[in-house]
Amino acid sequence: MDFDPRDPYSRYARARAADGPTFVPELDAWLVARDADVRAVLRDAEAFSSANALRPDVVPGPEAVAVLGSVPSGGPVVVTADGDEHRRLREPLTRGLSPKRVAAAVPFITGRAEALVAGFAADGRVELMGRYARVLPGEVIGHLLGLDPADVPAAVEGSYRAEDLVFRPMPVDEQVAAAQVVAGMKRMLDAHVRARGGEPGDDLCGEMIRAIGPHATLLSNLQNILLAGHLTTTALIGNAVLHLLRRREQWELLCERPELIPAAVEETARYEAPVQGFRRVTTRPVTLAGTDLPEGAAVFVAFGAAGRDEAAHHRPDEFDITRPPGRHLAFGHGAHACPGANLAREQARIALETLTRELPGLRVAEPVEMPPNLIHRSPAELFVTW
Q1: What whole-number distance in Å separates Cα of residue 110 and Cα of residue 225?
Q2: CA–CA distance, 360 with 254 (Å, rounded to integer)
Q3: Which family does the record assign (predicted)?
């Protein structure tokens, strides 16, 4: 295989060296790998539609589809919408995830981060993805949506099973089991919305209820923000800890100089983008970096490749938390830039502050595997000791 999603960086490097976008059969798309070209695509939402942004790698079978069809769903979601429709769906997210609302959530994030670490601090060993990185972001987005804390674990599990359904080949019985978990998550969101009646509230969920209709479209966007609100942050936290611990001197420097933590978060996002890229489709013939693309051409806009572009970043293949601040594309750019970027940054910052303070002796205990998933790239498991 020329393109290995477990380690895409060598293919990214060859794509950046080419004269323009290169067609990659494994992606069934033109790979856009240079920082300047990625920015050009993301700035031109009219010529490069987001309609195929989340094209599945796997199409669930009819048995799983029948299970999913038992719950209201449908309508556009913000990540795949364009133009006025995209603006309408994005506005409540911008309000619900404003800097003021993120700042108001920091005490909750800090309290839960400290409690989670305290829960395993005496053990000497933990699988950090399952005990922390997958837990905190789910609790935080659940808090912002006003979910009952008792419902959050099922919501998190439903999110991962939804991802499995479209990105991991499974036999029919496993597909049906995953679909049942996803359907249960959707029913929980449905009940949560209906319980609010005529009083939506002033949280993120309330903003979405007031702005988005009909009901099925609202549920689809709630599911979308639930997934996007924690899967990407989980990946960012896992990647940060992994790369810091793989370079012991960087971890120890961070323990000594916690003021570098925000820079460490940005360096992680640049070096190992949690979302490696999204798809776009051309709405008309367009020329990109000297390459003529016809209408309907699929492109894969690789944030992960842009982060390693030597034209945009000095020593791009080195992980260095002392690097001077620079612009990266890990959270997107243009109209579709991630509305939850500040929330993700705050959670990663608080995670590193808590772990460096409470467990400075942290070390990777076992080899780490990166699953073949370009939508959320992070360790499958991260066993650490101290």
Answers
A1: 22
A2: 9
A3: Belongs to the cytochrome P450 family.
Task: Answer yes or no: are the C-beta atoms of 286 and 306 closer than 8 Å.
Answer: no
Could you tell me the two tokens for 80? 């795949």
Instruction: Tell me which residue range forms the domain holding 355.
Output: 9-385
**Residue written as token pair 């945009």:** 312
Residue 218 lies in a domain: yes
pLDDT at residue 5, as a whole number = 87
What's the angle, vertex CA 96, arms to CA 50 and CA 331, rounded to 5? 45
159 occurs within a structural domain: yes
Condensed to tens digits (0 to 9), the pLDDT of residues 371-385 reads: 888 888 999 999 999
* pTM for the predicted model, two decimal places: 0.95
Query: Do the beta carbons of residue 153 and residue 131 sit within 8 Å?
Result: no
What is the tally of structural domains in the chain? Answer: 1
What does the block give as tokens for 126? 């933990």
DSSP string over 155-170: HHHHHHHHHHHHHS--
Using alpha carbons, select from 241, 246, 25 the residue that is nearest to residue 113. Answer: 241
Residue 128 phi, psi dihedral angles, 5° rounding: -70, -30
Q: Is residue 206 part of a domain?
A: yes
What is the phi/psi pair of residue 56, to 5°? -70, 150
CATH code: domain of residue 208:
1.10.630.10
Confidence of residue 71 (pLDDT cuts 50, 70, 90): confident
Q: Are 35 and 309 in contact (CB under 8 A)?
A: yes
Q: What is the pLDDT of residue 345?
A: 98
| Cα–Cα distance, 126 to 382 (Å, whole number) | 8
Is 1 among the domain residues?
Answer: no
* DSSP-assigned states of every residue in 325-363: P----TT--GGGS-TTHHHHHHHHHHHHHHHHHH-TT-E
At residue 30, what are phi and psi to the nearest 5 degrees? -80, 125
* Residue 91: C-alpha distances to residues 87, 96, 196, 210, 274 (Å): 6, 9, 21, 11, 24
